[in-house]
């Protein structure tokens, strides 16, 4: 029987988070800057996904390769949920129709929305963003 204490688990978690940070730095060295939403997706990976990403990184030549890798694993879904959470925190409840629209966005559109929402001051700004 293996005994693990809370401080051991905390140390393991910190090591995993550090490994994710290293992978983000490696990606930036190889591919250039990436969007904050892609960083969020990477930080949300499990340890097994981190290992897979590290192996796949050698085959990436563009940021789109990274996006496709994440998309194939359904990882960008977390970014959509994160954007919705940010909007709810900023504006309170948002209409279900807008949530549905957000869930239907491509990963590139999600990244654009993630940057644009910083400039939104009302829910109407979000509605207008969709109408552009």
Fold blueprint:
Layout: H1 6-31, H2 36-43, H3 47-57, H4 63-72, H5 76-91, H6 96-103, H7 107-116, H8 123-131
Would you summarize the structure shown here?
The chain is mostly helical and 132 residues long.
Structure characterization notes:
- By secondary structure, this protein is mainly α.
- The chain has helices at 6-31, 36-43, 47-57, 63-72, 76-91, 96-103, 107-116, 123-131.
- It contains 8 helices and no strands.
- Helix 5 (76-91) packs parallel to helix 7.
- The longest helix is centred in the N-terminal third of the chain and has 26 residues, at 6-31.
- The mean pLDDT is 86.
User: What is the number of beta strands?
Assistant: 0
Can you tell me the overall shape? globular
Could you tell me the strand content as a percent range?
under 5%
Model regions low in confidence, pLDDT < 50 over at least 5 residues: none
Largest sheet: none
């Amino acid at each position: 029987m293996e005994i693990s204490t809370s401080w051991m688990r905390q140390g393991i978690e910190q090591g995993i988070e550090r490994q994710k940070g290293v992978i983000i730095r490696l990606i930036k060295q190889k591919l250039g800057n990436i969007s904050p939403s892609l960083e969020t997706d990477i930080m949300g990976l499990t340890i097994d996904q981190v290992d897979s990403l590290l192996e796949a990184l050698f085959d990436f030549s563009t940021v789109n390769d990274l996006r496709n890798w994440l998309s194939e694993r359904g990882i960008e879904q977390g970014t959509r949920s994160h954007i919705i959470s940010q909007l709810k925190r900023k504006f309170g409840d948002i209409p279900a129709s807008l949530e549905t629209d957000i869930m239907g966005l491509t990963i590139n559109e999600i990244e654009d929305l993630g940057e644009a929402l910083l400039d939104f001051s009302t829910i109407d700004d979000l509605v207008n963003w969709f109408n552009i």
